[in-house]
Specification:
- It is built from 5 helices and 12 strands.
- The chain is an alpha+beta fold.
- The strands form 4 sheets. It has a 5-stranded mixed beta sheet, with no helix packed on it. It has a 3-stranded antiparallel beta sheet with strand order 6-7-10, with no helix packed on it.
- β8 (about 145-150) and β9 form a beta hairpin.
- α2 (about 20-25) packs across α3 (about 30-40).
- The radius of gyration is 23 Å and the shape is elongated.
- The chain binds fe (ii) ion.
Length: about 200
């Protein structure tokens, strides 16, 4: 965990819920003075209070600790809005179907913003044996390599993790795939939109 709940976060969330310090205190069985102390940085709520405090403020403990209110803006999730996260320390790849607060190795990770594939990171897709055969001409050394390829439709994400010394290639079920992604450990995330297929 990067940080513990801070007074300014408690105050902001309490005020947004239109609660007084006394009202918040009553909900979690502490004194108004205790809440006042937390908000002015003269103390922290005990760890046993984090859950009741989060509940009283209508957020999750993770949101309370991160100081961010995460709104689920896509209840009918479309996988094409998936976000990829890569940990720069351990190389972990994390996929979220919507907005999320992701942390790995103690670092809060930003969602990767894909670029259109460039000549060095050209993503080629051909149909072979009823699958997409996806390949790239890209170094696959320990220092510089494609660490995953992914095929995304509105319903699913197919993700192939790659490692140095392998070929930069993968096979994906065609289904309704609309976009292909490739992640280079040096240059970041690239995407191509597939042309519409006739059925
Ligand atoms: Fe690269």
């Amino acid at each position: 965990m990067d940080n513990y709940v801070t007074g300014s976060v408690i105050r902001r969330l309490r005020e947004s819920k239109k609660l007084t310090q006394e009202e918040l205190a009553a909900k979690i069985a502490v004194s108004g003075k205790a809440v006042s102390k937390w908000e002015t940085g003269q103390g922290f709520p005990d760890i046993s209070l984090l859950e009741p405090l989060a509940r009283a403020l209508d957020i999750s403990v993770i949101e309370l600790l991160s100081g961010e209110d995460i709104q689920n803006r896509n209840p009918s999730s479309d996988m094409r809005k998936s976000r990829f996260y890569v940990c720069p320390v351990c190389g972990n790849v994390i996929l979220a179907a919507g907005e999320a607060l992701i942390s790995c190795c103690g670092i809060t990770l930003p969602p990767l913003v894909p670029e259109t594939s460039d000549p060095e990171h050209e993503i080629r897709a051909e149909i072979a044996e009823n699958e997409y055969y996806v390949s790239m001409d890209h170094p696959m050394t320990k220092e510089h390599y494609i660490s995953f390829l992914a095929a995304v439709s509105d319903q699913e994400v197919q993700l192939m993790k790659l490692y140095p010394e392998q070929n930069a290639e993968a096979r994906f079920a065609i289904r309704r795939v609309k976009k292909l992604y490739a992640y280079c450990n040096r240059h970041g995330l690239f995407e191509i939109v597939l042309p519409r297929r006739r059925r």
